[in-house]
Amino acid sequence: MEPGPEEIGVRAIPTSDVTQRRFFLETFSETGSWIRRSETVKLPKAGRYYFVGFSPEGHTGKLWLSIETKESFTAMNLLQFPIWSKKIQKFHEVPGKPKGDG
């Protein structure tokens, strides 16, 4: 018999019980998002972990997960920021911002 989700370390973090969401303005990319859940999960050991987002109710739309608690950028990352910013704005469908493949 195959192990169940709990035996392989699966942990569901639902948002169906969320009654209020919090707005977050990301000033560097000039994008806004709604935070439906904020949770700190302590991982038991170093290794590879997978995060999966899905809607049991079949809702569609965009989802992004923020993983880690501290932003850390290298000089190379900062040089690449104009490219990242365009991609982030395209994902968020920011009006008046570049719509190209950037």
Summarize the structure in words:
The chain has 102 residues and is α+β, with helices and mostly antiparallel strands. It has one domain (6-92). Helices cover 18% and strands 10% of the residues. The protein has one helix at 75-92, and strands at 22-26, 31-35. It has a two-stranded antiparallel ribbon with strand order 1-2. β1 (22-26) and β2 (31-35) form a beta hairpin. The longest helix is centred in the C-terminal third of the chain and has 18 residues, at 75-92. The model has no long low-confidence stretch (mean pLDDT 81).
Give the SSE string. EEH
Number of helices, where a helix is a run of at least 4 consecutive DSSP H or I residues: 1
Residue fraction in strands: 5-15%
Distance between the termini: 48 Å
Strand tally is: 2
Uncertain runs are none
Structural class by sheet pairing and helices: alpha+beta
Q: For the CA atoms, what is the radius of gyration? A: 17 Å
Q: What is the overall shape?
A: globular
Count of distinct structural domains:
1
User: Sheet with the most strands?
Assistant: 2 strands, antiparallel
Give the mean pLDDT. 81
Helix coverage percent: 10-25%
Lateral strand order in the biggest sheet: 1-2
Give the helix/strand layout.
Elements (H helix, E strand, L loop, with lengths): L21 E5 L4 E5 L39 H18 L10
Antiparallel strand pairs: 1-2
